[in-house]
Amino acid sequence: MLIKPQIALHLGVHKTATTYVQSRLWNSREELKKNRINYIGLDELRKRLTSKLGDISFGKQAVFDALFPFMNCNRLIISDENILGGTDAPRRQAFYPWAKQKVKKVHSGLEGCDVEIYVTIRSFPDYLVSRYSESLRHFKFLAFEDYMSGISSKNISWLPMLEDLALVGAKHIYVNDFKYVVDGDKYLHELIGKRLELSEASQGSWVKRSKISQEAYEIVKLYAESYSDQSTRRLVGMMDNHPQTTKSNPFMPFTKAQLDTFKERYEKEVEIIRRDPRFTYIPE
């Protein structure tokens, strides 16, 4: 008889040090195994599960079959921000309009397991600029204003996504701010369920991708007018791997009034989340 493990479903969101977390888990996988904790590498997880979640024929049993080989443990960590969606332009007036369907499908395949959902949120300006910067590495170039055209300012919120996750049926949904993830190892210990000495993350621009600078944005915008999408993405990749030698000004396409509004909204949303019994805000 299969004893189903406790599941830690780490969903990101994007640009909240997910690659850093995944790199540390991957580099620590032998230590985790000694403690009967399994972590599925990102490439393997995306091949087996994430890339198939949009397929109607990939249902509950298929999800279970994809994850079954990793269930010989006490705790299984499933970490992929792409389960929520991608970093393409926001659509349907939401950050992750298909999150509920995808996460619910994963959750249904884990029936009988104790599933904990972990999700990190971030201040709106930092998240949006970081998400946009990441989109330039994967999608056709859009000016920032075009990238944001699918979501109005009043609908920029974490609450709809969290409401969708609450409807999935998981008993435990842990929410935290981005700063908690990068503040030592506390978040990782929450995720793995115990205090262990974990290996450091691998080095490289792919682990810690920076936000684009104002100068880089202007260069890419001009370049995209004359060259192919593929060539433009390569230019962004080259910029990732070659630090800017001139003075760098952060790309921040919001006015001070917008920044103040976003700050007030984010703080109010954190308080709403703290008071909502469906969520556990960490740290408390």
What would your notes on this structure say?
With 284 residues, this protein is an alpha/beta fold. It has a domain at 6-124 and 155-211 and 265-281: Rossmann fold, CATH 3.40.50. Helix content is 43%, strand content 10%. It contains 13 helices and 6 strands. The protein has helices at 18-27, 29-34, 42-48, 60-67, 99-109, 124-135, 144-147, 159-166, 178-181, 186-192, 214-224, 229-241, 256-275; strands at 6-10, 37-39, 75-79, 115-121, 172-177, 280-281. A 6-stranded parallel β-sheet has the order 2-3-1-4-5-6. This is Sulfotransferase family protein.
Give a quick set of tags describing it.
284 residues; alpha/beta; Rossmann fold; 6-stranded parallel beta sheet; 43% helix; globular; Sulfotransferase family protein
